[in-house]
C-alpha cells in the first residue's frame, strides 16, 4: 500500500458492514476506500454538491472511455461532461459498474428478513433502501437514483452477453483512491453486492481516509489515459473559471 | 443474442400508427395489455427509449435491474423491462433485430464534447430531445426524470476483458421490436439525431411506432 503522508490526512472513518456514509468530498481532496477484510462491496453514487441535478452518469462514463469496468486511470463523469471523481490509484483492479444495487427482495430472498429489533445493527439491509435513506438527508429521493458503482466487485460479460460475478476479486487491504475533481457529494453504503453468492449474509466494513491531494498536473494518469479524459478535465476546469 | 422472434400482429389492425422523425421526441401512455412496436424503417437507427409507471413516474425503467434480473446485458425477446422498484413494466415479445443496448445511454451535447470535440456542443442530441419532450408534454418533470435508457436497435458489444465498443448496427430496414405492457406505462422516445458515430450509421432516419389492443 502507498502510505499517505500523515500530515495530509484530514480525517478517517470506519464504515461498518451494511451501513451508510456520505460526505461532500472537496475538490483537492481524495477519498481512499480500503477493503480491510477482503470481499467488500461499496455501492456508490456521486452528485455535484452545488447543483445535485448534475450527477454520475455511468453510460456516459463507460462509453467515453470504452469500458465496462472501472480501475486506475478512469474517470467518473456527470451528465454534464464533467468529472466528479477520478480513480487515481487502485490495488484491486476491477470495480463493477453493471450489476446495480441490492434490494430488499434480493437480500430477504437469499438470507431471510432480520429486523432491527432482533439483530440491532446487524439487521439485514440493502443498497437500494440505504441509498434512498442517505439521499433523503440531502433533499433527494427516488427520482435522484441513478446507475451505481459497486467498488471491489467484479462482474464480467461473456461473448453471448451473460453476466458472471467473480467472488474473491478483492483481497484484504485492497484500496481505491477517488480524487474529487469537483465538490462531489459521495453517497455510499457497504451493503452486499446483488450477485453476492455467499451462503450467509456477510457484508464487510471499509476504512475511509480523506486526504489533501495535489491537483492533476499535465501528465496526470487520469488526464492522459484517453483523449476523451483530456477534454473531460478541460470541461471540469472551465466550471471553476 | 436472444434469437429472432416474429410477431403475428397485423399493422392494419393497430390502434395507433405514427412515424417519428429523427431528432424528434415522442411521449405516450401505453395501457396494460397493449402491445407496442418500434419499427426501424430504413435500418440502423437508434430509438432511445425510457419507460415510467404511468401512475407514479418516480418508478421508472432501470437498466441495471433489468440486466441483472435477466443475467445478461443485451435486451431481446423474453426480456422483462424492470423498474427501479422491481416492477415488470413491459416484456419484449417479438424481436427481428436480435439484440438491443441499455448500457450506452443517450447522446448529449455535453458527452459529445467529451467523446468527439468541444466544438460539438451545438449538435442536436438525444438528451435535448428528451428535455424537449418532457417540457412539451410533462412540464412537471425535470432532468431528474431523464434517466438511463434503452437504445433499441443499437449494438454496443461488451468484451470479456471489460471493454465496450460501438459497433455497426445489427438492425436493418424493416426490423422491429415489440413489447407487451404489463402495467400502464408512459413511453418517452428520442429518435436519435447523432451524426458522430455508427450507432445509426451516421444517418438518422425515421422509426414507425405502432400500438395494438
Please characterize this protein's 3D structure.
Chain A has 241 residues and is α+β, with helices and mostly antiparallel strands. Chain A is 20% helix and 29% strand. In chain A, the strands form three sheets. A six-stranded antiparallel sheet of chain A has the order 1-12-3-10-6-5. In chain A, strands 2-11-4-7 form a four-stranded antiparallel sheet, covered by helices on one side. In chain A, strand 5 (75-77) and strand 6 form a beta hairpin. The longest helix of chain A is centred in the last third of the chain and has 13 residues, at 227-239. The termini of chain A are far apart. The mean pLDDT of chain A is 97. Chain B is an alpha+beta fold. In chain B, 13% of the residues lie in helices and 27% in strands. Chains A and B meet through helix 1 and helix 6 of A and helix 1 and helix 2 of B.
Biggest interface? A-B, 48 and 45 residues
SSE run of chain A: EEEEHEEHHHEEEEEEHH
Low-confidence stretches of chain A: none
| Number of helices in the DSSP assignment of chain A | 6
Structural class of chain A: alpha+beta
Instruction: Describe the main β-sheet of chain A briefly.
Output: 6 strands, antiparallel
Count up the domains of chain A: 1
H and E string of chain B: EEEEHEEHHEEEE
The N- to C-terminal Cα distance of chain B equals 28 Å
- Number of structural units classed as domains of chain B: 1
Strands in their spatial order, largest beta sheet of chain A: 1-12-3-10-6-5
Mean pLDDT of chain B: 95
